Structures are given as C-alpha cells and as structure tokens.
TrEMBL record:
Pfam families reported in the protein's UniProt record: MGH1-like_GH
High-level lineage: Bacteria, Bacillati, Actinomycetota, Actinomycetes, Kitasatosporales
Gene source species: Streptomyces montanisoli
PANTHER family named in the record: MANNOSYL-OLIGOSACCHARIDE GLUCOSIDASE
Name of the molecule in the record: Mannosylglycerate hydrolase MGH1-like glycoside hydrolase domain-containing protein
Entry annotated with the keyword Hydrolase: yes
Amino acid sequence: MTATAPARQKAHSLSPPERRALRSGAARVLFTNWTGASTVPSHTLYPHQWSWDSAFVAIGLRHLSPRRAQRELESLFGAQWGDGRVPHIVFNPAVPQAAYFPGPDFWRSSRAGSAAGAPRAVETSGIVQPPVHALAALLVHESDPATSRVRGFLRRLYPRLAAWHSYLATRRDLGGGGLVSILHPWEAGMDNSPSWDGPLSSVEPVPASAFRRADLVAGSATDRPTDTDYGRYVRLATAYRDHGYRDDRTYAFAVEDPGFNALLAASERALATIAEEIGRDPEPHLARSSALTGALVERLWQHGSGLFLCRDVVAGERVGERGVAGLLPLIAPGLPATVAEALVRTVAGPHFGLGTETVLVPSHDLRSPTFDPARYWRGPAWFNTNWVIERGLRAHGADAMADGLAGAMLGAAAASDFAEYVDPRTAHAHGATRFGWTAAVTLDLLARTGER
C-alpha cells in the first residue's frame, strides 16, 4: 500500500495564503491554550502543564512571542525538585481533581517526594519526561538575544538545566553503561509503545475498577491505551511513589530508551552553547554529550535492524520491537556517519515507509503484528517526533527527504486541525485536536521553510 494521492498532494501544495492561514490557526491554538503562566496541551484531555510539551511549545512560541516562550520554560522549572528532576506534570490547583487521572491526590508529591526535594508550594507528578528543555531554551534565546540577555533568561535557567541533566546522568544510570534509564513508560513520552510490552509483561496490573480514566471521557477508547496497560502504569507509579521516588534497581520496569538519551545528548550540546553565552565552561557538557552518543551506539545500536533498540535493564537484554524512538538518535551530536546513513535508509525503508507507504513517520514498525494506526503510540504519527526526525535528516544531509517531511507535516496539521496524532498513511486525525505541540512545531516549520 502507498500513501493516498490526495494526502500526499495536500502535504506539498500549500499556497502562500494557506501558509498564512495555517500560521494564524497555529497561533490561535497556542494563545487559546495559554493559562497565564504556561500552555496546556489540550483543555480537554490534558488540562495541566506537561514537561516535554512545554519544551516544544516554547520552540513554537518563540516565533510569536519570545518573552512568552521564556516564561513557558521558567514556569516549568519553577516546579523543579531539589534533586534536580523536572516532573512530567505541574498541576494547576484551579483544575478539578476529576479532570485528569492520575492527579495530585495520587502523586502526593509534596509529601511522598519530600526526601527528594519536591516543592511544597505546588503539586507535581514524581516521574520525568524526555529532556528537550536545553535545546528549547537555546532556540528561544536565539530568536531574540537582546531581550533574553536583558532579562537574564539563560543566566537564570542555566543552573536549573545543569541540575536537571546532572540528576539524569547520576541518579538514573541504572544500567551502569552511561545511559539514562526510564522507570515508567510515561517517562519516554511514548506511553503504550509495543517496545514496553515485554518489559511490562511481569507487572501485575491494578484492576480497572480501582481507578477512573479521565482520558476516556474526552477520547475514544480505540485511540487510547487499554485498561490492562493502564493498570500496569498505575502499579508502577504507585510503587515509585510509595518508595519515596527514590531511584534504584528495585523496580519491575527499567529501560534504556534511545529517544530519551538522544534528546539528552542534543540538549547537553545545546547546554554547552548556553554555558559559553553566559561565560561558563562548556567542556563538561560537550564531554557528556559525546559520551552519551558513544554509549548509545555501543549499547543500543542494532546494525541488523538499521536502528537503535531499547534495552531492558531488568532482564539485561535488548527489546526487539522497532519503534520511532530508535530513529531519534539522528539528532544526537557526533553520530558516526555509517550509523546516520543506515538510519536515513530505515526511515524510508519498509518498516517506516516515509515517502512511499506513509505520509509521516509512524510511531511503530509498519510490519509488526502489534502495529495499529489509530492507537496512541502503537502506530500513529506524532508531530513532535517527526519534528525531531526532520531536524536529524537535515543535519545528515538528507535535505530532500527533510523537505518532503516538513511539507507533509504542514499539510497534515492543516488537514487535521492540529491533531494530537494522525494515521501515518492518510493523516486522519486521532486524539485531541488543536493540540499544543502540533501547533508549535507547525509554527517552527513554517518559519524555517519560509526562510529557505
């Protein structure tokens, strides 16, 4: 099967008036989702502040208001824990408890996380999400250096970013090989990826009757994780909370994820540039970035598969599933040319099919029996991961493929009303519409493709 002709044609034929209308629509989404201090991904499904969502939102907001983009990141880091972690959710106390599960009454961060330095004035979750923040901060600064310097944006944010990276590098190297381990599927940001099926198989799910899923109130059950998966997520989060959010190898789930670590490598490189800007030593960040890329290649690269694979730290083995996280190391600085070339081939090859079978890069292997084009991270295409891949392709000289992907993303955003995620073949919308990071990366692509 190939991508439908109408979907492909629409992806590459936006006229100047359509581009202006798309920019206006994306701006409207971000302004509507703004709460006064931060941006919610969606008022229906996700009514609080999410960590890596805010990083992508800031990347888009910089084209509308660099000052507001700075505020987006400052707001998030205002909820940073004493041990350096940046929680994946910062809860808005004005939002009713029933609007999202698991909410603040589940995480109990100010009490259960007190030993780890959880803030007392705001409730958060206790887990983390991919560290895109230093890269976002650098891009925000570069959009208006004068205002950034006057406000001391980077000077104030730098020690918080450094503490965040240090937490990940020291507390989360549970495999001992120089890579960060995630302790919950939500920490990868790719909640129900088939890559977690094996590592989760030994986790006894909490019965569905023990919790209420607010995500099914505003979303279709066919688009979301199953109750069994959700029960396992609740079990893992409960164990982490009841252990005082301590990071060790006692948990049933611990995985080295290539996407998470690649984004940390890219952000360490960005943090080196930030350090130089404010007169600090960039070398420790450059060294850590290089070490992360080296560890990625050594521990997670699978030549026969043509991409990076997750590693189950508990079982001590690689996970065989091909997920989009395995392509994200295209963004990792210093990636060996032979590895980068193989990744580019894999993006366009039969398992992801970009440009032949798919309009956008799917979140999972098209050839896998677990592939589902509609269910969350088990197959649909997401705009943030495609944005990362587009940058990675361009960094390795695959400009034609990157141009095609950028055009396809713009066309899909316009056709889907900025959907949370889409069918990778047809760009049919799934999940929430008018989604924060979809609008944000649309603004960034419009600005960058307009410049070219």
